[in-house]
Amino acid sequence: MTSPPPAAITAAVTAADAVAPTPAQLMDQLAQAAAAYYRNFATVAAQRGLTLMQGKMLSLLRRPMPMRTLAELLACDASNVTGIVDRLESRGLLRRESDPADRRVKLVLLTAEGERAVAQIRAELMSELSGLESLEEGDRRALQRLLGQVFPA
Amino acid sequence: MTSPPPAAITAAVTAADAVAPTPAQLMDQLAQAAAAYYRNFATVAAQRGLTLMQGKMLSLLRRPMPMRTLAELLACDASNVTGIVDRLESRGLLRRESDPADRRVKLVLLTAEGERAVAQIRAELMSELSGLESLEEGDRRALQRLLGQVFPA
DNA sequence: TATTGTTATACTCTATAACTATA
DNA sequence: TATAGTTATAGAGTATAACAATA
Fold first, then answer.
1. Mind listing the pLDDT tens digit for each residue in A74-93?
2. Is B123 on the interface with A (CB under 8 A)?
3. What is the pTM of this model?
4. pLDDT range class, residue A153, cuts 50, 70, 90
5. Which of A17, A33, B10, B78 fits a 20 to 30 Å CA distance from B26?
6. Could you give the domains of chain B?
């Protein structure tokens, strides 16, 4: 029976031998990971003159969707979407289109230029997250499963 | 020799048998996880009348630190820190203190009320992330290792 | 000279409330 | 009546540039 090493030693130990982190420690690491993700995303968006929210909105538009849906996905009030869409529309990255099925609804969709911008953002973000590309298949499966467990859809 | 199942079937398969996600798919899942983390954090902060940035700043102040350091940790310009600290100081959650070693520097530190606020935010956030508490030791170790690999310190 | 923190400025994001046009 | 989108408003976050105090 081996007793777990004291916390001070943990950092120097290889992953396989490491003491399991507490949920609280894992929460701190999640905070750092989430911050790092958005720092990378914001940097990549800023390189194209876009704010974080503008980059997020463009990235969400894999298919046309109502403004109301964008508000839900961006976790903000519907009144904010008007301004964000306005600014992106004036730059030619997306456009509004009336929904024939319900004339109250405006569908937002990317222009060709918007599609290119999203593709470049995604590519640059992927190259920023080089640690992601170097994961083995087993590790990719494990990370997918664990993230799904901590953040259920 | 078994060939991997087509992508359309993947979703219905159990985790153990699942095809490994591509790095691009994993990047999308990271985006969702980071968004979910901050949605939870912002909700918990808002319950105490705090914005996301205010909650972040308080959570960073485990020990006194210069405004400049806060700017780096929050990934924003130093000029923004003045206003955020102002608002939290006027609410009695933190205070400024001159650094005797370098009189240009102002150290920011939590008040007793600020300490209580942080403790409550952390506790409520932990209860929101119930999926974290239910992870087995092996899964906690794995998640720690994988996050460290994708987002190196 | 360089650095820390502040101020002034302009822009963006944010929620709330009130409005319109549709349903 | 209810919903989708807009507008007006006020407050908060954001980067830039210029400044005072200190190193």
1. 999 999 999 999 999 999 99
2. no
3. 0.90
4. confident
5. A17
6. 45-148 (1.10.10.10)
